[in-house]
Amino acid sequence: MARKRDASATLMALVAALACGGEAGGPGPSAPRIDYVDGAIEPVLVAGAAAVIDGFGFGDSQSTGTVRFRLQGSGTVAAIVAPGTWSDRSIRIIVPDSATSGTMTVTPASGSTLSAAVHVLPHVSFDPLTLIWQARSAFPRAPVGVALAAGV
């Protein structure tokens, strides 16, 4: 019985030693980075829509920080960042209408440049009032009591 107790105590001491074997001051700081844009590694965004950039090292406030998207041809355009939505770990933006697919860059107040690949689709408006409904006489009839409609 004493042998079992000694083995158990030795095992617990080993586990405690391994658990405390890390750095004396805790883990070092993480490097600034973009982890996800709108929940994806390589997202598909819509021009004019809101998106959230998740990561680390953006700074606690926007101050002089920017988020920029590529323009058709050359150049970049700044995204709109709503007041109070910039934090060290996330930024809420509105994708500019003139943005195109390519590299999105986040430049925090610290001056570092973080980038991520994004795909930007143009905003397509949909208005149901522009649809034209037509009755088709040659269309097959629906079974008993079930309505049927088709759009072209």
State the end-to-end CA separation. Answer: 83 Å
Low-confidence stretches: none
Percent in strands = 25-35%
Number of distinct helices: 1
Could you say which overall geometry the principal axes of the C-alpha atoms support? flat
Spatial arrangement of strands, main beta sheet: 2-9-8-4-5
Could you tell me the radius of gyration in angstroms? 28 Å
Largest sheet: 5 strands, mixed
Q: How many E-type strands?
A: 9
Structural classification: mainly beta
Q: What is the mean pLDDT? A: 82
Order of helices and strands: HEEEEEEEEE
- Share in helix: 10-25%
Please write out the topology:
Elements: H1 2-19, E1 33-37, E2 44-46, E3 50-56, E4 66-71, E5 76-78, E6 80-86, E7 90-94, E8 99-107, E9 114-121
Parallel strand pairs: 2-9
Antiparallel strand pairs: 1-3, 3-7, 4-5, 4-8, 6-7, 8-9
Name the descriptors.
single chain; 152 residues; mainly beta; 5-stranded mixed sheet; 4-stranded antiparallel sheet; 1 helix; 9 strands; 12% helix
Describe the structure.
The radius of gyration is 28 Å and the shape is flat. 12% of the residues lie in helices and 35% in strands. It has one helix at residues 2-19; strands at residues 33-37, 44-46, 50-56, 66-71, 76-78, 80-86, 90-94, 99-107, 114-121. With 152 residues, it is mainly beta.
Quick take:
This protein has 152 residues and is mainly β.
